[in-house]
Amino acid sequence: MHNSTVVTSMKDEAPYIIEWVAYHRALGFDRIVILANDCTDGTHEILSRMNDMGVITYIENKVPLGAKPHSRALKIANQSDEVKSADFVMVLDADEFLVVKQKPHTLDVLIKEMTKRSADMMVIPWRIFGSSKRVNFKDQPVIERFTCSMSVSGLPKAGVKTLFRQSDDTRLAIHFPKPLMKGGKAITDPKKSLWIDAGGKKIDSGKLTWNGGKNKIHRDFAEVAHFMIKSLDEYLLKIFRGDGLMNSNRHGIDYWRNGDHNTESDLIVSDMCPGFEAEYDKLSADPELASLHQQAVAMRLKRVRKILTNPSVKELRDILKRSTQGSLKKSDVKRSRDLVTEMSPPPVPEVIMDGPIPHSTLLSITAPGLADSSDIAHRVFKGARSNATMFSPEKDFAKRPITNLVKGLERAQKGNRTKSLSARWFHNYARALPQDGWPLDEEILVVITRDSPSIMEQFPTYVTRSKSKYVDKNHGGRPPLRKVLSGKETPEDLEALIADGTIEDPRLKLSKYLSAEPKAIVLNLDHPEDVAATLNRIEESKGPSGPVVATLLRGVLSNSLPTETAPSPAPSAEEAVPITPARTRPVKRVTTQPLRMHWFQRNGGNSAGNFGDELGPMVVRHLTNKEVAWAPAGQCDLASIGSILSQVSRAAQKSKRKTPLLIWGSGLIEEDATPLHSSLSVLAVRGKKTRSTLGLDPDMPLGDPGIFASDLVPAAAKKYRWGIVPHYSQRNSSNIRALGRSDDCIIIDPTDSVENVLKKISSCAAIMSSSLHGLIVADSYNIPCLWLNIPSHKSHEFKFADYCSGLGRELFSEVSLEQAENALLLDPPVEPHFVDASIKEQLSKALIL
Fold it and tell me: How far is the C-alpha of 88 from the C-alpha of 607, rounded, in Å?
């Protein structure tokens, strides 16, 4: 005997709750878990009553700033006993109904089909239902009122949901479960699970996206009925707030037309669940629940009457009605979009919390290379408790910076404090840089260090004691530090390892970091008098939290400072930050000439550049502080970015090149195993596919230089809901331009300047791109993205998969041009990918010129 759980997340769904719960109970789900947030229409009260009746498990989803309600709901549900102890689980939205098409139309049918095939996952496609040409809201079950839907001949792609066997190695997600991650890697390989569709056919999970991806999803056994819009008045209730303004400017004629599918009536949902009426009547027999339902219905009807007093709303309603009737005119479309613009609320600054907001300071601390670095970090953690400070290690802080800062602000506000101090400890110089949207007034960056001789003495011990993962990883073609150093090495041993390129010089690394961070406060523990003076300056000049920061650091560093009190002589520049450290590899020449670099130029440089290619020299210039000049492939010193590796190799062969030509971050255009010319010295390539195809060193660093985009141009304030980045060859396509007709969507010209393209991409809440670098830049700015899969050249898919393999990220969720318009009407069905700082670090280290 098995038990099953269905999970959903709601906001203001009061009139529909009894129906949804009754239906899925009748279908055979043993337990129903519902989370709801920010409800004002009686949803909370109805769910609370059902919870008291033992019908459902209700969890109120209190969403902090910066968190996504749906994602947070699933994270909470994933930890519930109802999910953890279930045999089978499914995630559905409140406007989705699982329909079992085979008799007796219960969940057991699907579970038996899965068991027969030893399947772990059954992927079930949407069927989108339209308005059935209904205008008015009515207190009658949705599954009885709406019987017209999209045509499913030809197995169209329209979104999927998944019934799956519960496992401790997976987590809930909107469309299908995702593997739990540990150390950036999946605990178990999803491909080891058997995935089938709702026709019993095996599917490739590696090619699965929110709408099925490259899999053809059959629907013999089941479908998910998706009632996106319902009746015209219900659609208006969905898109308008109580004050008559629209919830967003993405709704209107375009959303309505893409959701109003009335082509077929071959699936009547109410006929597919024989026990529904009895279950509905049973729940409605509870007097308190019935009363709450009637109150919710009355509130809906009142809201309809109120919003229809607005002439603009009535005009939009008439246009939408004509659309359903098939009498829409071209002028109606334009007018509806104008009405949407007029009635959309102006952008307003987001309110973090009620009442006075405390001054927000973030203290960021690192102590690289010191033997007692871990001890200092632990003392920061302990000291934070007694200094009213929120402490997080960087790996936790970087996942949710806004949420972490807001928690500190809320605690400060609750304690009637006028200032909030948050602290984080980061390793290996890798920290998330403050962004415009963070609730932050000031960052205080502190680097704790010692003189050069002390660093050389302590570095081996630091490596053996460090809890940071980077000491266990390869860097720039070098072996992991923990494998090289035992902790017993002398400074002379270290110098030798630096000279032969086995390890990077920790003094040089410190020097580079301090040069890049001129505002960093350096506390050199070999000079306690200087430390004391610096802490005094922090106390006096670093804003409202300065005194707390100084007090915290004094307590933290008291055990690390020398016991003598006599002033120490100030270090020489060479001791504190070496100017000429031992080189990690021989340098070819010393010259003031620009670095000769090759990247793709359109029409030989006679046309406007493609931003993805022009991004390469900007990244190299940023990381090396060298001037860069374009050079032909056979005459350059360095080739980087783009699928130009084979081209550069052929050019080197043609010119019979003898001198080394460095390759950094480039990749193949297709799976071509032709050996590279002997002159090519490969520092890093774009991804695993390029690396394995060419048989390169399996420890070679991976990554596309585009992941450094957010380091070049600060993120802009969010302005658009969607940004569309076409491949440069598709930028003038009328089909592409048609996608950008909504006011909350922008078409981003890939031949614009790199700075402008990056600013525009970062100003979008989500990106849809047929350009690989449009997606890479979205990753850099932590923006959700969809791959608009329009072929631009032969084997064009190779480079997309290559990039993803280099980051260890899932393949991009993709949409076709035909699906794009519908996808733009919805919120992005994917989470942003956070680029691992260690990947950027390894790629940066590999660029040694």
Answer: 57
Amino acid at 259: G
Extract the tokens encoding 437. Answer: 């949207």
Compute the half-sphere exposure of residue 399: CA atoms within 13 Å on the CB side of its CA: 6
Structure tokens belonging to residue 633: 């492939």
**Buried-exposed string 772-811: b where 16+ CB fall within 10 A, e elsewhere:** bbbbbbbbbbbbbbbbbbbeeeeebebbbbbbbbbbbbbb
Closest CA to 131 of 269, 228, 13: 228
Q: Residue 241 — pLDDT band, cuts 50, 70, 90?
A: low
Q: Which CATH number fits domain 4-293: 3.30.1370, 2.60.40, 3.30.230, 3.90.550?
A: 3.90.550
Please report, for the chain, the start and end positions of each structural domain, with discontinuous segments joined by +: 4-293, 360-558, 595-706, 717-837
Q: Please tell me the class of the 717-837 domain.
A: alpha beta
3.30.420, 2.40.370, 1.10.3470, 3.40.50: CATH of 360-558: 3.40.50
**∠ CA(8), CA(10), CA(16), 5° rounding?**
95
H or E segment to which residue 638 belongs: strand 638-640
pLDDT in tens, 642-654: 999 999 999 999 9
Residue 772 is encoded by which pair of tokens?
Answer: 């690989």
Separation between Cα atoms, residue 816 and residue 788, nearest integer Å = 6
Which residues share a beta bridge with 786? 768
- CA-to-CA dists, residue 360 to 250, 437, 548, angstroms: 34, 13, 13
Can 4-293 and 717-837 be said to share one CATH topology?
no
- Give the integer Cα–Cα distance in Å for 426 and 367: 8
Residue 637 one-letter amino acid: D
DSSP 29: -
Close Cβ partners of 609 (under 8 Å, ≥ 6 residues apart)? 601, 602, 751
Question: pLDDT exceeding 90 applies to what percent of the chain?
Answer: 62
Preceding omega of 104 cis (within 30 degrees of 0): yes
Interval 573-631: pLDDT, tens = 333 433 223 222 333 333 457 889 999 887 666 667 899 999 999 999 999 888 899 99
